[in-house]
Amino acid sequence: MDTTQRTDQQRSADRRRRELLEAADRVVLRDGPQASMNAIAAEAGITKPILYRHFGDKGGLYAALAKRHTDALLDSLRAALDAPADRRERVEATLDTYLAAIEARPQVYRFLMHPAEGGQVGDQGFDVGKHSAPLLRRMGEELATVIEERLDLGPGSQQLARVWGHGIVGMMHAAGDWWLGERPCSRAELVRSLADLLWGRLAAAGDRMGGPGF
Amino acid sequence: MDTTQRTDQQRSADRRRRELLEAADRVVLRDGPQASMNAIAAEAGITKPILYRHFGDKGGLYAALAKRHTDALLDSLRAALDAPADRRERVEATLDTYLAAIEARPQVYRFLMHPAEGGQVGDQGFDVGKHSAPLLRRMGEELATVIEERLDLGPGSQQLARVWGHGIVGMMHAAGDWWLGERPCSRAELVRSLADLLWGRLAAAGDRMGGPGF
DNA sequence: ACGTGCGTGTTACTAGCGGTAACCCTAGTT
DNA sequence: AACTAGGGTTACCGCTAGTAACACGCACGT
């Protein structure tokens, strides 16, 4: 049998693939999202066609790259969401985990979310468009299932959970993106403010004097 | 004086600019976001360098194009937010206005938010990366000022309003994006669900039997 | 009448990208 | 020794954004 053969080859291919991904990671983190296939190949010490043999096209390479980071992020988010604490604490922990992640590795975040930024002359960078959605979508769907599993929302709970899942993820994403750019407050404050929003402080707030209020 | 001269010239230039933008609009809506400068120039009945004289580079053209749509959208949002009704009604009206807009002209929306989608072979499309953020940012900032003006949030209200502004906009955006792709429910239901979320139903929901709940 | 700018337009080009076809070379099998 | 199978390279294609350099036309000041 050639099973051992196959395994050997597959192993070798997988190792190669990982090496290539790590090289791609380095280049993307160094050159920003407009990293070219040439540059990645050079960093990996090989030439373009090999990249294409492994990943099909640039989108494939990007998808593989994004999957690594996305999976890691989702794992830590799940952990935070599963910790033994009450609901509000866990919501805050999850928000904080996400924000800490994008704070710790902003280049990775920018790569995943903001394709062409800082492109100098040629602006053909990674087309994250097809893939950044998947990250948000995955987070939204996962959160939706968690909500639907654990919360009692009455009739129509599944629909509601999905809307909320995507909505909350979008809130976290947009607020985090803005916060990462401007750093207007500490992470803890941001987390608290967002949790307050989710906890209904918007509805509970009083109107300012005069006028009908927001 | 050559003021009249100047004015004439400026008028002519402005008219030209508008014509070019409308041509660009047509092409972008027809070909999707990977519309090339060549194609836009051809649609406008002229050649590339003129485009570059008017808009500097592709980003400039895009920015001008995006500004038109963004301004229009922001106007209708402001109107909805300023209508005479109570807070919840106006929040719902604003959400509905946004969702109705992206529902009515999904191509425009996709162009503004999802640069390269449906690209066939060459994937160098519009680099919306630098500009899609501005749309979300502008909406977030505007909402923030509205919140800060009209709501009594106690100390730290400005910070809080900004976080909420960006957070709510992000929620709306992500939920709308997901909804537009999957159409899992009617617009009215989506609006209701999001408003419910903002109104604290997440915090108020009971845990499901067993386990610590979400 | 006549150059002289100046705005408007074109052709023809560069540099670089993603992607691919064709070849090459070495290692292991028979 | 001959042969196949992968890993690798060179050299190319078609396309893109962006730019120089040149050409027409039309109002001006003298």
UniProtKB/TrEMBL annotation, chains A, B:
Q: Which residues form the HTH tetR-type domain?
A: 14-73
InterPro entries named in the record: DNA-bd_HTH_TetR-type_CS (IPR023772), Homeodomain-like_sf (IPR009057), HTH-type_TetR-like_transc_reg (IPR050109), HTH_TetR (IPR001647), Tet_transcr_reg_TetR-rel_C_sf (IPR036271), TetR_C_32 (IPR045823)
Q: Which UniProt keywords apply?
A: DNA-binding
A molecular-function term among this protein's GO annotations:
DNA-binding transcription factor activity
- Give me the positions annotated for DNA binding: 36-55
One Pfam family recorded for the sequence? TetR_C_32
Q: Where do the coiled-coil regions begin and end? A: none
Output this protein's name. Answer: TetR/AcrR family transcriptional regulator
